[in-house]
Amino acid sequence: IMFFRQQIQQEQEKYVDLLRVVGALSKLSSDSEIPYLYYRMAENIFCKAFGAENLARSDISLDAKKGQAGLGLKTFICKGACSTEKIAEFNESGHLIDEANTVREKVNTIASLRNERLETTGGICDILIENMLYHCVARRAGKFLFHETPIKKINIENIGAIRENGNIISFSD
Fold it and tell me: What pairs with residue 135 in β-bridges?
Protein backbone atom coordinates (compact mmCIF):
# COMPACT_ATOMS: atom_id res chain seq x y z
CA ILE A 1 0.00 0.00 0.00
CA MET A 2 1.09 3.54 -0.58
CA PHE A 3 -0.45 6.08 1.75
CA PHE A 4 -0.02 9.62 0.39
CA ARG A 5 -1.71 9.16 -2.98
CA GLN A 6 -4.66 7.36 -1.37
CA GLN A 7 -5.54 10.38 0.76
CA ILE A 8 -8.05 12.98 -0.34
CA GLN A 9 -6.69 15.91 -2.32
CA GLN A 10 -7.53 18.40 0.44
CA GLU A 11 -5.39 16.49 2.96
CA GLN A 12 -2.52 16.12 0.47
CA GLU A 13 -2.58 19.86 -0.20
CA LYS A 14 -2.72 20.69 3.53
CA TYR A 15 0.33 18.48 4.12
CA VAL A 16 2.31 20.06 1.28
CA ASP A 17 1.30 23.58 2.40
CA LEU A 18 2.37 22.95 6.01
CA LEU A 19 5.72 21.58 4.86
CA ARG A 20 6.16 24.53 2.52
CA VAL A 21 5.62 26.96 5.42
CA VAL A 22 8.09 25.12 7.65
CA GLY A 23 10.63 25.05 4.82
CA ALA A 24 10.27 28.78 4.28
CA LEU A 25 10.57 29.52 8.00
CA SER A 26 13.76 27.49 8.25
CA LYS A 27 15.49 30.30 6.33
CA LEU A 28 15.04 32.46 9.44
CA SER A 29 17.48 30.32 11.42
CA SER A 30 19.84 29.05 8.72
CA ASP A 31 21.54 30.17 5.53
CA SER A 32 21.45 26.63 4.18
CA GLU A 33 19.58 26.00 0.95
CA ILE A 34 18.42 22.69 2.44
CA PRO A 35 15.23 23.28 4.44
CA TYR A 36 15.32 22.22 8.06
CA LEU A 37 12.56 19.87 9.26
CA TYR A 38 12.71 18.80 12.90
CA TYR A 39 11.47 15.21 13.12
CA ARG A 40 8.89 15.98 15.84
CA MET A 41 7.48 18.75 13.68
CA ALA A 42 7.33 16.38 10.69
CA GLU A 43 5.37 13.88 12.79
CA ASN A 44 2.91 16.52 14.00
CA ILE A 45 2.43 18.01 10.53
CA PHE A 46 1.75 14.57 9.05
CA CYS A 47 -0.81 13.66 11.71
CA LYS A 48 -2.53 17.05 11.58
CA ALA A 49 -2.82 17.10 7.79
CA PHE A 50 -4.06 13.52 7.43
CA GLY A 51 -6.07 13.19 10.65
CA ALA A 52 -3.79 10.35 11.74
CA GLU A 53 -3.24 9.14 15.28
CA ASN A 54 0.17 10.29 16.53
CA LEU A 55 2.09 7.31 17.93
CA ALA A 56 5.52 8.94 17.81
CA ARG A 57 6.06 9.02 21.56
CA SER A 58 4.90 5.44 22.09
CA ASP A 59 8.37 3.87 21.67
CA ILE A 60 7.22 1.50 18.93
CA SER A 61 8.17 1.07 15.27
CA LEU A 62 5.35 3.28 13.99
CA ASP A 63 4.87 7.03 14.34
CA ALA A 64 1.34 7.35 12.97
CA LYS A 65 -1.77 5.31 12.31
CA LYS A 66 -4.73 6.02 10.09
CA GLY A 67 -7.29 3.31 9.54
CA GLN A 68 -5.40 0.08 8.91
CA ALA A 69 -2.21 1.87 7.78
CA GLY A 70 0.75 2.17 10.14
CA LEU A 71 3.48 4.61 9.20
CA GLY A 72 7.06 5.11 10.25
CA LEU A 73 7.90 8.75 9.51
CA LYS A 74 11.46 9.58 8.51
CA THR A 75 13.12 12.84 7.49
CA PHE A 76 16.70 13.22 6.34
CA ILE A 77 19.03 15.13 4.03
CA CYS A 78 19.54 13.39 0.70
CA LYS A 79 22.60 14.72 -1.10
CA GLY A 80 22.85 12.18 -3.93
CA ALA A 81 20.59 9.99 -6.00
CA CYS A 82 19.88 7.78 -2.98
CA SER A 83 20.44 7.64 0.74
CA THR A 84 20.92 4.88 3.30
CA GLU A 85 19.23 5.63 6.59
CA LYS A 86 18.96 3.99 10.00
CA ILE A 87 15.76 2.02 10.55
CA ALA A 88 16.27 0.86 14.12
CA GLU A 89 18.31 1.27 17.29
CA PHE A 90 18.62 -1.38 19.94
CA ASN A 91 19.91 0.50 22.96
CA GLU A 92 18.14 -1.60 25.61
CA SER A 93 18.92 -4.86 23.80
CA GLY A 94 22.49 -3.88 23.02
CA HIS A 95 23.86 -6.45 25.43
CA LEU A 96 22.35 -9.24 23.30
CA ILE A 97 24.16 -7.91 20.25
CA ASP A 98 27.41 -7.45 22.20
CA GLU A 99 27.26 -11.06 23.40
CA ALA A 100 27.40 -12.37 19.83
CA ASN A 101 30.74 -13.92 18.88
CA THR A 102 30.75 -13.06 15.16
CA VAL A 103 29.44 -10.28 12.96
CA ARG A 104 27.02 -12.78 11.41
CA GLU A 105 25.65 -13.65 14.86
CA LYS A 106 25.24 -9.93 15.59
CA VAL A 107 23.32 -9.45 12.35
CA ASN A 108 21.08 -12.43 13.09
CA THR A 109 20.38 -11.03 16.56
CA ILE A 110 19.61 -7.58 15.11
CA ALA A 111 17.32 -9.10 12.48
CA SER A 112 15.49 -11.19 15.08
CA LEU A 113 15.05 -8.18 17.38
CA ARG A 114 13.78 -6.07 14.48
CA ASN A 115 11.28 -8.72 13.38
CA GLU A 116 10.09 -9.19 16.95
CA ARG A 117 9.66 -5.41 17.33
CA LEU A 118 7.50 -5.27 14.19
CA GLU A 119 5.34 -8.14 15.44
CA THR A 120 4.94 -6.43 18.81
CA THR A 121 4.07 -3.10 17.19
CA GLY A 122 1.51 -4.79 14.96
CA GLY A 123 -0.12 -6.38 18.00
CA ILE A 124 -0.17 -3.15 20.00
CA CYS A 125 -1.63 -1.12 17.11
CA ASP A 126 -3.77 -3.87 15.59
CA ILE A 127 -2.02 -3.41 12.24
CA LEU A 128 -0.73 -6.12 9.94
CA ILE A 129 2.92 -5.83 8.94
CA GLU A 130 1.71 -5.82 5.31
CA ASN A 131 -0.01 -2.49 6.10
CA MET A 132 3.09 -0.78 7.53
CA LEU A 133 5.22 1.59 5.52
CA TYR A 134 7.83 4.29 5.81
CA HIS A 135 6.79 7.76 4.70
CA CYS A 136 10.07 9.57 4.05
CA VAL A 137 10.64 13.27 3.56
CA ALA A 138 14.05 13.71 1.97
CA ARG A 139 15.43 17.23 2.06
CA ARG A 140 17.44 18.76 -0.75
CA ALA A 141 18.32 22.33 -1.67
CA GLY A 142 15.05 24.21 -1.97
CA LYS A 143 12.74 21.20 -1.78
CA PHE A 144 11.18 18.32 0.07
CA LEU A 145 10.89 14.97 -1.72
CA PHE A 146 8.40 12.31 -0.58
CA HIS A 147 9.02 8.62 -0.83
CA GLU A 148 7.08 5.69 0.59
CA THR A 149 8.30 2.14 0.94
CA PRO A 150 6.86 -0.89 2.70
CA ILE A 151 8.13 -1.91 6.12
CA LYS A 152 9.02 -5.57 5.91
CA LYS A 153 10.38 -8.18 8.24
CA ILE A 154 14.00 -9.10 7.58
CA ASN A 155 14.49 -12.37 5.74
CA ILE A 156 17.15 -13.82 8.03
CA GLU A 157 17.98 -16.72 5.72
CA ASN A 158 18.72 -14.30 2.87
CA ILE A 159 21.07 -11.90 4.71
CA GLY A 160 24.22 -10.86 2.88
CA ALA A 161 26.50 -7.89 2.12
CA ILE A 162 27.30 -7.50 5.83
CA ARG A 163 29.42 -4.47 6.73
CA GLU A 164 30.48 -3.38 10.19
CA ASN A 165 31.89 0.07 10.89
CA GLY A 166 32.28 0.77 14.59
CA ASN A 167 28.83 0.46 16.16
CA ILE A 168 27.07 0.60 12.78
CA ILE A 169 26.18 -2.63 11.03
CA SER A 170 24.60 -2.68 7.60
CA PHE A 171 23.40 -5.61 5.52
CA SER A 172 20.86 -6.55 2.90
CA ASP A 173 18.34 -9.35 2.71
Answer: 73, 148
Give dist(CA 82, CA 36) in Å, integer.
Answer: 19
Task: Give the pLDDT confidence of 107-136 residue by residue, as tens digits.
Answer: 999 899 999 999 999 999 999 999 999 999
CA 10 to chain centre: 24
Contact 8, 74 (CB under 8 A): no
Residues in the chain: 173
- C-alpha distances (whole Å) from 142 to each of 32, 76, 84, 145 are 9, 14, 21, 10
The C-alpha atoms of residue 143 and residue 158 are separated, in whole angstroms, by 36
- Positive/negative CA dihedral, 6, 118, 172, 73: positive
The pairing of beta strand 69-77 with beta strand 53-54: unpaired
- Among the residue ranges 73-82, 90-99, 119-128, 131-140, the one predicted with the least confidence is 90-99
The answer to whether the beta carbons of residues 69 and 80 sit under 8 Å apart is no
Measured at the CA of 20, the angle between CA 2 and CA 139, to 5 degrees, comes to 65
Question: Model's pTM, two decimal places?
Answer: 0.88
Q: Which string of DSSP letters, residue by residue, matches 41-74?
A: HHHHHHHHHHT-EE-GGGSSS-SEEETTEEEEEE
CA angle 149, 152, 155 (to 5 degrees): 135
